[in-house]
Specification:
Largest sheet: 6 strands, antiparallel
Strand order of the largest sheet: 2-1-4-5-6-7
CATH topology of one domain: Glutathione S-transferase Yfyf (Class Pi), Chain A, domain 2
CATH superfamily of one domain: RecF/RecN/SMC, N-terminal domain
Structural class: alpha/beta
Number of strands: 15
Helix content: 25-40%
CATH architecture of one domain: Up-down Bundle
Distance between the termini: 22 Å
Number of helices: 8
Length: 358
Amino acid sequence: MTLSRLSLAQFRSWPRLDLELDDRPVAIFGPNGSGKTNILEAVSMLAPGRGLRGAAAPEQALKGKDAGWRIAATLGDHAVRTQAPPDQTRSVTLDDKSVPQTALARLVRVIWLVPAMDRLWTESPEGRRRFLDRVTLSLMPDHADLALAYDKAMRERNRLLRDQVSDPGWYRALETQMAEAGAALTHNRQSAIAAILQAQGASDAFPAAMLTLLPGEGHADDADAASIAARMAAMRPRDLAAGRSLTGPHRADLGATWGPQDMPAALSSTGEQKALLLSLIMANARALSDQPVLLLLDEVAAHLDGDRRAALYDLIRTLPAQSLLTGTGPELFADFGDSARHLSVEKQAGRSEVTPLS
């Protein structure tokens, strides 16, 4: 299922953009701030959630938060449209029928890598948990609904804790909901890690990593609903003192080591960390070989030498995915040759413009 058409209106720096695409990789280059990443962000909005920047819908409008924007795309035989009119929440239509955002996860899988993720192995567990959940969502579309159910029940339980409600009757139903959704979330995460490990390919340029679901401080590797519920009940006095839930899958972390010495990713060099991250992204795409995949790689050449860039492009040609990449200059994508489509982007008078070169 190829993304054959992308149309933007008033989205970020693009007053309008109409692109016709094929199944070749798309190499988008131009100066920093020219609007390259905004194209990838628009494509990322074909997935549930806030896209690769995590921005609220009003922040994405060209004319400011009181304006609106629209994205239209053709995916295979399907017409997708998502928009955020002024003072309204984001909506999605599929073949002219209104659908929830979660329906997008069943249509196409969108995987991305952005420069901020280069710090994945050294930042807080929250960033690694978000990364793992995006991987899991790409493999198991029901993961979004489970996460919403868990978060909703946890917010209500946390409200009771902050209000110092001590009656156990108020907690049991919420803890049962959290336990059931949380057990399924953890099972999905463990299954996703297993799928990525199986799909990894080892090479000198992009070594395979050993991944582990770390429990953190909240027994977040427990996939048994009954024991999760029992632990939450036992933890109520401590949670009341803290004013929040201290145990459960929302405390999970992702561990990664590589090489014969089991080098922790956090202690590796910047280049090695980037190579590990790319290895996982490639494995994610390979694990979805039976699904349509859009792979978005923003400023992907950063921290990669020429040999690793060439190795990456060789891998991309073999992936069962439609890939869009950005970089600052055409020389970064020279190894693609005619096997990729090349687009030049520049900004004039504060608005982005694109020139197809092949």
